[in-house]
Design brief:
The protein has 163 residues and is α/β, with parallel strands linked by helices. The chain has a single domain (16-155), classed as 3-Layer(aba) Sandwich (Rossmann fold), CATH 3.40.50.2000. Helices cover 29% and strands 15% of the residues. It has five helices and six strands, in the order βαββαβαβαβα. It has helices spanning 37-48, 73-82, 91-99, 114-117, 142-153; strands at 19-22, 52-54, 63-65, 85-88, 104-108, 123-127. Strands 3-2-1-4-5-6 form a six-stranded parallel beta sheet. The longest helix is centred in the N-terminal third of the chain and has 12 residues, at 37-48. The protein is globular.
Length: 163
């Protein structure tokens, strides 16, 4: 990955410190619920005191939606590569961040993190042990998503493991 030729970030973001928030996974079951986005963006802002960039709308004064500036995979790779930190529920972002040595906090709701990040020393996993969801790959059932949302809303921000 280190040798990939990637597109340049927009001029404004070149050589600027930012952290990246990637809450969407390939399925709602493994995504960070929308009701928790602003809280986590605020935690990132409080911790790093720099802009929080991400994909999609989040109502926070220090958040910037860069989805329009990331039309394809190579752009996504570039945003992850240049981030100072990544917070995500998306394993693609986890793997990319590991490939570029970007410190990461990764959330796991149904798949044990040992299966995904055991060899990534700069990745700190947060695992919500939810027996009803154990090993589910995908779901959009309301009951399942309610369990995920409850887990995220009871997360103590001071217990987030920062890499």
């Amino acid at each position: 990955m280190q040798k990939l030729c990637l597109p340049a970030l927009p001029q404004y973001w070149q050589n600027r410190k930012y952290v990246l928030f990637c809450p969407q996974a390939s399925t709602p079951l493994r995504s960070i619920p929308g009701s928790c986005h602003a809280t986590l963006v605020n935690a990132l802002w409080q911790r790093f005191a720099c802009p929080v960039l991400g994909f999609g709308q989040v109502d926070h004064p220090h958040y910037v939606n860069i989805q329009p500036f990331s039309p394809d995979s190579s752009d996504f790779l570039a945003w992850v590569k240049h981030a100072s930190y990544v917070m995500t529920a998306d394993t693609a972002a986890v793997h990319i961040a590991a490939g570029y040595d970007v410190p990461t906090t990764a959330f796991f709701t149904s798949i044990a993190p040992e299966l995904r990040v055991r060899d990534y020393p700069l990745c700190q996993p947060v695992y919500f042990a939810l027996p009803a969801l154990n090993n589910l790959q995908a779901s959009a059932r309301k009951h399942d998503l309610d369990l995920v949302e409850k887990a995220f809303t009871t997360l103590k921000l001071n217990e987030i493991p920062w890499a």
